[in-house]
UniProtKB/TrEMBL annotation:
Keywords: Cell membrane, Membrane, Transferase, Transmembrane, Transmembrane helix. This is Phosphatidylglycerol--prolipoprotein diacylglyceryl transferase. It is an enzyme of class 2 (transferase). The chain crosses the membrane at residues 12-31, 43-65, 85-103, 190-210, 216-242. Pathway: Protein modification; lipoprotein biosynthesis (diacylglyceryl transfer). Its EC number is 2.5.1.145. A 1,2-diacyl-sn-glycero-3-phospho-(1'-sn-glycerol) binds at residue 128. It comes from the Bacteria.
Length: 265
């Protein structure tokens, strides 16, 4: 494990590095897709910045809410200190900020959500590499499986062989990003994002069974409750699309007639 590296004499957190690389990779994918669909390419990093800001604010607020007994002792430090992020809060915060940006631009529609989905999956996959390298405690429960590993030098160390759940998530979400990208012009508007919700939610729901998080409702963790909502939303969305004419794009592909139009500014 390598929680920190030295870069030109300056300490650099590996989690933060991979977090940043995840956003840059997501921006690159989004830039290419915007170019393919005839949209302003500079929107990509506008979106990434907005999603990053919303994600950080949402994840911090969720951490404060989830750990109120600890956070309430020093609320200023809890809100602006150097640790304490919750993924589902980041997902909600990022989504709300992106929706606000899209509404202002006049492009809040299914096609925009489809544009973002592969980038979201790829960014998440790369971010989880940072969790693995830094050993930040996102690993799973002890296991006797041959690929179980300890994290003796991690940010949250353990000498037990545990499930390397960040690797599981990196592989799964990386494959999802590839699949969504491959399907981008073959399905109707809305299908790509619905699949992202369904598969991304299922992935996190299942991996939580071998993580170390405490249950909060009906034996489920907070992340599982959030993931269940994602799965249901994605499944309902797909059913609605199936009843409305199927999932395949009509004619020559989804991008042909389902592109968000740039708003005049």
């Amino acid at each position: 494990m390598q929680p920190e590296i030295d870069l030109l004499g300056l300490p650099l957190k590996t989690f933060g590095l991979m977090f940043a690389l995840g956003f840059l990779a997501a921006g690159a994918v989004l830039s290419r897709r915007l170019k393919e669909t005839g949209q302003p390419v500079d929107w990509a990093y506008e979106l990434i910045f907005v999603a990053l800001a919303g994600g950080l604010i949402g994840s911090r607020l969720a951490w404060v809410f989830q750990n109120w007994d600890e956070a309430s002792d020093d609320l200023v430090d809890a809100l602006f200190g150097g640790s304490g992020l919750v993924w589902y809060g980041g997902a909600i915060g990022g989504a709300l900020f992106v929706c606000a940006w899209a509404w202002r631009r006049g492009v809040l529609n299914l096609s925009l959500l489809d544009l973002c989905a592969p980038a979201l999956a790829l960014g998440y996959a790369i971010g989880r590499i940072g969790c693995q390298i830094s050993g930040d405690g996102d690993y799973g429960q002890p296991t006797d499986l041959p690929w179980g590993m300890p994290y003796p030098d991690g940010t949250v160390p353990t000498t037990d062989d545990v499930h390397p759940t960040p690797i599981y998530e990196t592989v799964t979400m990386g494959l999802l990003a590839w699949a969504l990208w491959t399907l981008r012009d073959r399905v109707r508007p809305g299908v790509i994002f619905a699949l992202y919700l369904l598969v991304g939610g299922l992935e996190r729901f299942l991996v939580e069974f071998i993580r170390r998080n405490d249950s909060v409702l009906l034996g489920l963790t907070t992340a599982q409750v959030e993931s269940f909502v994602m799965m249901v939303a994605g499944l309902v969305w797909i059913v609605v699309l199936l009843r409305g004419g199927g999932l395949r794009a009509a004619g020559g592909g989804a991008a042909a007639g389902a592109r968000p139009r740039p708003a005049t500014t």
